Structures are given as structure tokens and as C-alpha cells.
Amino acid sequence: DATVYARRDIPKGERLHMSRGDCDVNCRGMSWHYGTAHVLRDAGYLEDYPQRWVLRAKNIPMSFHLEKEGEGHHGLTVTWNIFPPNEDQTRFLLGHLLRLKDIEDTLKEDVEEYVEAPHEKETILQFFQHLKTAMQYAYWYSDMVEDQDEDQEEVCVLGSDVCARGYDDFKPQYIEPFENYYTSFIHNPGNIFRSFVGPNEKLQTSYQKLEFFHHRADPDQNPDEGPKSNTCMYIDTHINVCTSLRPHYHEVFVHYPASFLPANQVKRVAFIGGGDNMVVHEVLKYSSLELVVGLELDQGVGRASFKHFGTQPHFDDPRVEWWFGDGAKSFLLFPESYFGSFDLVLVDLMSYVMAELRVDDDLSFMDAAVRLLDPKKGVMAMNYDLHPPQTKYMDYTVDLYFTDVPIFCKQGVTITSGAVDFLTAPQVDHNLDNLFWDLNYVKDVERQDVDTKYDLWYNYWNCSSPDSRRRNCTPVKAPAYEEDDDDDYEEDFDAGAAESTGIGSLGSFLVLEAEDARRLTEGIPQADAFKQTLTKAGLTTITFQQTISESDNTATVVLLLKEGYVVARMWPQHEYCAFDILLWSSFNKMEGARRELLAMLGGDQASSSSYRMVMGGMNGAIEEGKEADGAIGPPRHAPTTNPSESYPEDAASSSPAQQDVLGTVLSESLALIWDRHAVVAVFCGEESQPCPFYDMMVREEFENLTVVPFHTCPSPVLSQACEDATQNRLRAAVLEHGSRFNGLVVDVSLSLSMGQVLHRVLDHGMLRGEVLEDAFVAMDAAFLSTDSAEASWRRGLLDRIHRYFVRYSPAFLADVRGEGEGGGWNLGVVSGGDDYFLSHLSEVLEELRDTHGIASEILAVKNGINRYVPMFEPSFIAGHDDFDMESGRRQWDSQRPLGRQSMVRLGEEGENSGLPLLRFSFSLNAPQMENAVRGALQSMQYLGHDADAGEAEVKTHPVGEGCLVMALWKGGNAVAHWDGGGVVNINLFSQNEEEELHRQFVQDFINSVPSLSVLQVEAQPRGYGRV
């Protein structure tokens, strides 16, 4: 016999069962993987409470018990099994909770239509409700765990009772850089690479390791059913770009900022990075384009991308000017006329690279990039990967963010300008043939009633006035830490003080491939002809050396110039000449030399290809006081714009006119609470004081708006009694009105103390869940006052609501300034749950201007942490067939390389700093340089790389403070020059294309000068057919 005790009456016929979720803590491992959903699956019934729920985020289980305590909707508690959720898991909970709420009506309709058995209908709907409730409470309790952890870490800086309560002083908070990061976890990706094979090719360039993976679509498959052909490139084991997402990033990156430029005015574009040639592909779509300048560290990326993606670098397009090598040094060689002249500047670099690079001690990389822009209309775009840049480089900035990207799932781009306010500037449709983005792109096809201009906007910053830059655009400084006074570390930062390091000499190197050089068929030109041609270009020849090989009908001439040197390698049978032009002074004469040399051989721009590199120059080659070199490098002062004046700080008094203006501003702003039956809480001063905002809202008699006043507690305000009273009043109001609050309004009469209590009460996720709707608005309107402390704590309160209470996107914090009768005012708004907040806010301000004559300006709109996107599917996935691959294929097949060239920069690294020394610590002279070249040539012959290298004609010439060694032989040539300081440059060409030959030559050269090490290597094929 068995005696059974029950906690409730059991009707006759009801099945009795044992709860599968009610067991010890570990449940023999079941707590990690077995819960209410599994019970329903295996046993066919839905458990009553307590329930155990097991969810998986990033394939990591998240397990909790949901138990009932007391009666009513809010009588549930959550107990985490082992670990509470982390940030990613909390975002996962919220993302799926919102998804469940979105599909609820559709699910009910589908169940009614497709499920016949009443019991099954009931069970499905019950399970859905239990799942939604479980995720809701798990989300609320995940926030409580974080709150409790933060409370334990608080430090008492106020009175003991106040400290015990943990009140916030609302001072500006320092935000650790990682707190601004957009997490990469926005959905459960699964095995997104399952269809890839490879890597099909691995190669090590001079700078990094590249890997290419391919997926080829089955030619017999339906293109709408199977995956498209796709290629992905990895750089140093990290995925960099894929065909499938190419238009999603590059079209937005290029054409979105360009949409703020006038029609037919995209004339001059500069881009930094973009070595995969995809940026230049997009830029060349503009028929108005006159010049596009690209800076890329590694030309190996471009050549490999051409091979695998079919993206052409367009070396043969006279509008395209590539600079390879260190971009910071390239800036120093740019003509001064480049700065302040570009309509569009695109910075396609990793965020940390942008932040850390410098041109020199006085100029950051990004400052130099900004100075390229036309100050009257220029727009810049910057890629960001982990977080938007904290530094606001110009007056107007928008951070774009979108989650419609295959594989990467998300993408961020920042656009900025010193002249274009993106909020008010019109966008222009340039009528381009794009695959993914145009001005009609919307993130939600079901919402066509809002301005799509803001669909990709995440943050907006207007830093044009000094007070706005101070308030919104200047990050709070990190807290000061006690300096390390450990004597063991006194010299840590002085160890390299005696070493002279820096940029050193610079030279501009032009690779010029002259094809259709018809005059070569008339005979090989003599060196004197080249000398005369260079004289026309304003260059002075010091000496030259020439060799002609009758056996294979080739010739090479090297001309040493006062300003640099020129090498010409000629193949008359192919009507082709390969030019090297290195200038270490008179940089402005490079274009003239190019034109004259092409004309000399009967060619022209249309039949040539070219690109540039930054190499070492020559100390002492430029005479002091001479202006013949032309102005180069960025200006040391940024171009100035005309920032708007700061709003005046009005007196703290509240005139009737000011009250009316604020009332109107707040009245129109209530439109941001878009629920049709809204309940709004107004937090006021003491009950004996006027509460202007509450009085206005009651007086206006807003339709379908319920207003509930909350007055400041009697003294002492900062107390447990006040907190309890405020909590009870909030809960009671929700019960009375049958709805949670859609809005919170901070009245001008509210004191700091009551603001602290409000923050403390709402600092618990469970209570917020009880009293605040998922989508709600908090706002504060105040006069511009000399009482900065008063204004500061109000901004601080809204900041905390935004940063900790709303938290996840869409979660906006807006700062609005305006002018009206009686003076200036400020409106602060926090909006949670409104994807189209910026559009709605703009409509409110337009209404204030058009109807009431009240002018205003948005100073900042900041979104929260990016949201997890459940069931993610991009709207479009690109494949190879979506692009014109034929043009690239024809060029690839037409290439005929005739040799290999290596440009090598050698130097001495400082023993302490590890940086290249400006001057060698050892003595170097011309005979040593010549011996090093001869030794390397002898080794080439001895090792069998080139039988004629040992017979090369070698000559050495003093130049400036250094020297130049030139060597010519049948199978190639070498030019080595020492700048007289701390740089040796080697230019080696051989018809033998083996990489090992070049590597060995450099190593043998270094063996003769053991203190040298390789600082830079640029290697490229030379030949015709647009190599």
C-alpha cells in the first residue's frame, strides 16, 4: 500500500506523475540538458511549476529553474543552475523573447488552421506561453544578477546611510573601451563554412599570410535552391572578405557617404586599405570621376584578389593612382595640392590600426587622412569592426550599423564631415548599378511610412558647437591611478633615449609598364636619348650605364639623376619597356617624366600601367632653401570650418515665457510615446510645490493618455522608507490603470535626491519588468542654466536609464538644444523599443518649427548595445555570377610576365627600441656597398641561379651623403643605394622569376654588412599584357 499526499485537490481521473524537473542540484547532469521542453517531447505533457528550462546560446547551455511563489502574474522566481547568463546569453534571451512576441498572433492563427485535435491545440499554445514567460523572467533576473554584482563593488563616498543604499551621484562615467564594443555574437551561425573546400591556395606575402577558400556551385542546380559560387579570403587566419558579402559592405561603404555629395560631383576620391580591389571597383562606377588615389600596404593582396575574385586593380586606368607600402610615409610624399581637395575619403582599415598609426610624432594617421578632404563639401567613411571610433574627427558624424550581411552577419561604417550635416543634408541618387544598396533600401519592407534615410543609422553626433563637443563628443577621461614608483621601472621608458629613430629619407618609386611602344621596333634607343627626354621633364642626368643583349634582343639602361634614378628595360619584339623611376627630390616632376618617356617610345597613357611605392631616398640630395622640389606632405594645421556658436547659458530663473516654451516642447515630444493608450509617470517635486509638466499634461487633456504624478517623498528622501514607498506607488498605479508605464517624465521641480531614489528603485530588472513596458520613453526638458550641477545630474539620470535600464538596441539617448521665446532649452530623451526613433524625433522637431516657430537642433543620438538577431537570414547573398567576371578573366589570360622585381629596404634596428635607426651605429662607405653587391652577384652565379650574374658590369657613384651602385648583366640588373644615414635600398630585377634567387641575393648582401636587417620588401612581376 502507498499513502499519497497532495498540495491540492486532485479531480477524479486526473493522471498522476512525478515531476521530472524536481530533483537535486545537478540531477546527475540533467540540469544542463534536460528540461520542460524535453518532458513535453518525451512524456507528452506540460509540467506545472517548478519548471527547468535549458536553452543554448553559442552552443553553451543556459539552465534555470522557474518556481512559483505566491499567487498572481508576478509570483515567479528564477534560480540559475550553476552559472547565471553572461552578456551574450542575456542578449540571446532578449532576442528570442522579442521574436516570440512578434510571432504570437501568427502562431495562434496557424495552430487554429492546421492543428485539428483540441488537446494538441491547447498544449501547443500553453507551451508557447510558458516558454515566453520563462524567457521573460530569465531576462529580468539576468539583469538582477548583474545589478547585485555591481552593488557589491560600490565604494562608500557619501554618508553611511546613503552609501548603504548605493545612490548614484550621476557624474559622467568613464567607459572602458571594451564597453563600446559591438559584440560579434548576433545569431547562432551554425557551420557556415560547411560548403567550402580548401584552402585552395596559401601564400605568404611580404607582410601577411593569405588563404583562399572556394565553393563552386553545381552547374546543374537550380540557382534559387542551392548555394551560389563563393570565395573567401583569410588574412593571418582571420576571414577578411567573401564574394557573398562583397556588395553588402563595399556598396554601403562607398555609395552611402557619396550620396551626400552633389550629383556629378564625385570627382576626387582617396581610399586607404581596400587592397582587394573592391573599393576601386565601386568608385569607378561614377562617370564624373577624375582621380582615385589608393593607399595599400600589401600589393600582394591586390594581385591575389585579382586571381581569385576577378577584381581588377586597374593599373592601366589613368584615373587610378595606387601607392603601395607604408601609408603613413605615402602621406609625406603626397603633393601638397592633394590635401583639402578630395570629395570622398574612404578608410578601410581595422579599428585598432586606424587608432594607432602615426605619420610622425606630430601628426596621427587619421588627422592626415582628414586633411585630404575638401573642407567645403568633403565626406569621409571609416570601417569599424569592434566599435565606432571614440574620437570625433569632424563636426558631424554618423555611425552606420546593419545586420543584413552574409557570414559576418553585421557591419559598421562611420561617416563624418566638417561641412555636411547628415541629419539635414539631402541625399542624392547617383543612379548606379548596385546589387544590394541604393536609396530605396529599407531594413523592414513592411514599414514604408517612415523616412528610410535613417534605416542604417546607429549613432549621430553634432560636434559643431563648443558646448556640444564638450558634452557629447569628448570621452570622459579614465580615472587617475597612482603612479608606479617602483625603482625597478625607472628607466623603462628611457632605455631608447640615446637612439635616434624616425622616418628617415624617403623616395617616391613609380613602376611604369609602357606597352605599344612602337618606336622600339625602329631600334633600341641609346642612353643619350633617355637623357634628353628626362631633361625635357626638368631632371638632371649625372651619368648612365647601358647594356644590350643581341642574342635575345633586349636592352637595359640605368640613368643616375641628381633627383634620383631611372631604369629602362626594353623588349622591342614585344613593343614593351619596363620603367623604374625613383625620385628623392623634385617629386613634382614625376608626372612630367612619365609623359615624356612614354612619348619618346611612341606610347601613351592609354597603353601604359603604373603604380607607386614609398622607398628610401637620399640625404643631402635636396639643397636647403631650394623650392624646386615642390610642396609635399600634409599641412600641419587642419583646415578650419565655421562651427556654430555655442548656445547661450541663460539665467536659472523660470519666466512664464520659458514655461510655455518648455510645455510646448514636451507636449509635442509626447508623440514619441507611440502606444495609443499610454500611461505616463511624471516625477515631481514635493506635493506642496507646482509640477509644471504634470499640470500642462492635465490641462492639454491628451486623448488616450493617462498621466500619473509621483511627488517627492517627505524628508529624509534618501532612505529605505522612500524607496519602499516609491516601489509600492509604482506597483499600485500599474494595478489601478491595468497597464505598465509607457513613459517617464522628469519635471523641472524634481530634486537630485528624488532622482537618486528613482534610479535606485528602477535599478532592479524585476521591478522594471513589472512597471515599465518593453517599449517606453523617458524624457527631461529644462532651461539652459548657469547651474551646471542641476543640468549635469539630469543628464546623468537619463544616461543611466539608457546605459543600464534600456541597454539593448533599439535604445536611444538623444540630446536636443533649442531656442524659443524666453531663451534656450534642452530636451533629453531615452527611447527603448522604437526602431524608427530618429525618424520620429525629426518629425517632432519639424512640428515644433513649422507649427510653433521653435527652432531646435539635435546634438547627439546614441544607441545601446547591438541586439541578438534570432533566425537570421540575409535578404541577399551574392555569388560570382552577380559580377562581371569576363573583363578580369580576359586581362588575367593576357598577362605575359618577363621577370621578377624586388624592392628591398634594409636598415639597423635599435638595440633598445627595436625601431630603425636614422643613422647606422657602424661606418658604411661606397667600397663596402660595391663589395656587397659584387658578392651577392657572385653567389647568384655560383648557386646556378643566373650564369651571367658574376660577369655583371658594376659601377659606383657618390650621391648626396651616400652612394649608388648599379649592376647590369644579360639576365637582369640591380641598383643599390645608401642614403648616407640609416637606409640601404636594393632594386633587383631578374628574368629568372624564382623567389629564392631574390631572397638569396638579399641575404648575401646582408652577409657582407651583418648589422643590416630587412625592413621592407615589395615584390612584383614585370611584363606586358597589363601585368
Please provide a written account of the structure.
The active site is at 348 (proton acceptor). Residues 625-655 are annotated as: Disordered. Pfam families: Spermine_synth. It is a single chain. The protein folds into 4 domains: 31-141, no CATH class; 245-430 and 456-464, Vaccinia Virus protein VP39 (Rossmann fold, 3-Layer(aba) Sandwich), CATH 3.40.50.150; 503-622 and 895-1024, 4-Layer Sandwich (S-adenosylmethionine decarboxylase), CATH 3.60.90; 659-863, Aspartate Aminotransferase, domain 2 (3-Layer(aba) Sandwich). Helices cover 28% and strands 26% of the residues. The strands form 5 sheets. The chain has a 21-stranded mixed β-sheet, with helices on both faces. β8, α6 and β9 form a beta-alpha-beta unit.
Brief summary of the model shown:
The chain is of the alpha+beta class. It is built from 23 helices and 36 strands. The protein folds into four domains: 111 residues, no CATH class; 195 residues, Vaccinia Virus protein VP39 (Rossmann fold), CATH 3.40.50; 250 residues, S-adenosylmethionine decarboxylase; 205 residues, Aspartate Aminotransferase, domain 2 (3-Layer(aba) Sandwich).
Major sheet size, sense and barrel closure:
21 strands, mixed
Determine the number of helices (DSSP H or I, runs of at least 4 residues).
Answer: 23
Strand content: 25-35%
User: Helix content range of the residues, please?
Assistant: 25-40%
What is the CATH class of the largest domain?
Alpha Beta
Structural class category: alpha+beta
Report the uncertain regions.
Answer: 145-160, 481-498, 624-628, 642-653
Region (Disordered): 625-655
Domain PABS: 179-349
Organism: Corethron hystrix
GO molecular function: thermospermine synthase activity
